[in-house]
Amino acid sequence: MKENNKSKKTFYITTPIYYVNDVPHIGHAYTTIAADVIARYKRLSGYEVLFSTGTDEHGQKIVSSAEKANLTPLELVDKVVLKFKNLWPLLNIKYDEFIRTTEERHIKVVQEIFNKLYQKGDIYKGEYEGWYCVPCETFWTETQLTDKTCPTCGRKIEKIKEESYFFKISKYQDQLLSYIEKHPQCIQPEVRKNETISFIKSGLKDQSVTRTKKSLKWGINVPFDDNHVIYVWYDALLNYITVAGYNTDKEKFEKYWPSAIHLVGKDILRFHTVIWFTMLMAAGIEPPQMVFAHGWWTIEGEKMSKSKGNVVDPYEMIEEYGADAFRYFLMREVSFGQDGNFSKDLLIKRVNYDLANDLGNLVSRTIAMIKQFFNNKIPEAVTKKEVYDIELEELALKTIKEYNTQMNNLSINLALETIWQFIRRTNKYIDQTAPWVLGRENSPKGRLSNILYNVAESIRLITILIYPFMPGKAKEVWEQLGMETDLDKLRIDRDAHWGKLKPGILVKPGEVIFPRIDLKEKEKEEVKENIVNLISYDEFKKIDLRVGKVVSAEEVSGTDRLLKLKINLGKEIRTIVAGIRKYYSVEKILGKKIIIVCNLQPIKLKGIESQGMLLAAVDNNGLALLTVDKEIAEGSKVQ
């Protein structure tokens, strides 16, 4: 972070821009929530913050995914981008800028930097021959490979040979090592920095930064050569200075650059340090303040995989547990920078113990006692402080100090643990002082007033501290406490001091902040859902399934989805119209023996009567028809 000439503290934080060949998953949510938490904290600390996220929309993967979906690349990216843009507000994420690499402002920056480096001699024309992973959009050298699979994703790679422009990354090897040595915080955590240094010392080779239009048309054109498009990673990394206003808004760029922190997954750290830093050095731009690489999430102890069906859908998590509970779990469960394990059981335990028992119970019983004993008014602290009172106040001040240190160090989960130690101590304070007993016994109001003021003030401070993590729930607590100040406008150095709570404010009892999740009831609901989907054996027997052979196939005019098929069922030939053209060509489906539902009522599709239905399985990778595994007569009944 830095201060401009007006001494205004500024802070710039980014997520990676997410590749839009797929829908958002837990990894995308984790990085973006972390960035949002840090951005909100910095605003609370008085910084002028720029928080950006966005989408990476060029490259071969996009072309391949678009072809499978029978869309143009732009149609595909426009569609998938909405899934990201629509998700972030649901997760209470408040970004300042959303950058798309297909935007004109970004294209201009990419071409300008590319041209600048070409004129400088740091980009030159040559020929590339080597290994390329399409899913990772990554080039690999022979020395980096142990077999013909990608070291990152494990999938098969292809050897390509074509004309290419190269970036002289080798020229900047010593300068890069020197920079990292002088700026030890620029790559974090420490273990990732050491890995990067080791990689650089092994020797940097010039990087291919274009593809010919014979192999790839979907990308940003090289400004001086119409036969080439710019490599997707070279294009994507420049988004960070596009957002900061490079060559479009000088004042903005000077304000926010290089006070930037990039949050990335550990799998893309080398791109964001080795390639990105040297690109900036070549262009005469200072590298960012820090690149922080976080770990990966396993799901129930296993690697996340579409084929295993264990991909965590953030939309489902929001629906089932709420956005703030999901945010809390991801930030609390694992040390930021380390790998983590996600399971619904672990999430439910966090909700029930941390959120419902600790925080929720603290709020609900405090509000209830203020309502009962002080007619909804926050009482005054009027009597001499006892030992318990002093301990609570001292812990509050210590908590705020430690919290600030941990948040500035990006020790996010430790900051939450610090808050929860204070929450548990406040609950213990209530148990030790037993205000409900004092209230029932009509004891002098002074002591009871002191106790409930102290607890209410603790909740006020806790709410300020949890706001970056759970902004929605923090606002609910704030409102129940009777506070009218906008949490967004609070400042820790001004408002997070003991004794700022004004007596006489009316509390507003409301709904339970974090209801407990009843595991037995949840299990009953899940069993009930499964039972609802069951059908009787007699109902199943009504379905007439038979083996049929495709003897004729033709495309249905006026549509890009339908095939008209003639199916031999032994004693008859049926016509069936099926929406499988995206997955099966006429040539590919001819002669296949497939499973047909024969006793469906015929329907007309594009004027053709369809007399049945094909059975198929569908997943994220596409569609596959159900077939038989050995030779069997057409018309045979499936039982």
Commentary on this structure:
The protein has 639 residues and is an alpha+beta fold. It folds into three domains: 10-122 and 168-294, Rossmann fold, CATH 3.40.50; 357-506, Isoleucyl-tRNA Synthetase, Domain 1 (Orthogonal Bundle), CATH 1.10.730; 537-637, Nucleic acid-binding proteins (OB fold (Dihydrolipoamide Acetyltransferase, E2P), Beta Barrel). It has 22 helices and 26 strands. Strands 1, 2, 3, 4, 8, 13 and 14 form a seven-stranded mixed beta sheet that branches. α10 links the parallel β13 and β14. α2 crosses α3 (73-90) and α11 crosses α12.
Task: For this entry, give a set of tags.
7-stranded mixed sheet; disordered N terminus; alpha+beta; Rossmann fold; OB fold (Dihydrolipoamide Acetyltransferase, E2P); 3 domains; Isoleucyl-tRNA Synthetase, Domain 1; 639 residues; 5-stranded antiparallel sheet
CATH topology of the largest domain: Rossmann fold
Level-1 CATH class name of the largest domain = Alpha Beta
Distance between the termini: 69 Å
Shape: flat
Unreliable residue stretches: 1-6
CATH homologous superfamily heading of the largest domain: HUPs
Tell me the β content.
15-25%
Count of alpha/pi helices? 22
Largest sheet data: 7 strands, mixed
Motif ('HIGH' region): 18-28
Keywords: Aminoacyl-tRNA synthetase, ATP-binding, Cytoplasm, Ligase, Metal-binding, Nucleotide-binding, Protein biosynthesis, RNA-binding, tRNA-binding, Zinc
Function: Is required not only for elongation of protein synthesis but also for the initiation of all mRNA translation through initiator tRNA(fMet) aminoacylation.
GO biological process, one term: methionyl-tRNA aminoacylation
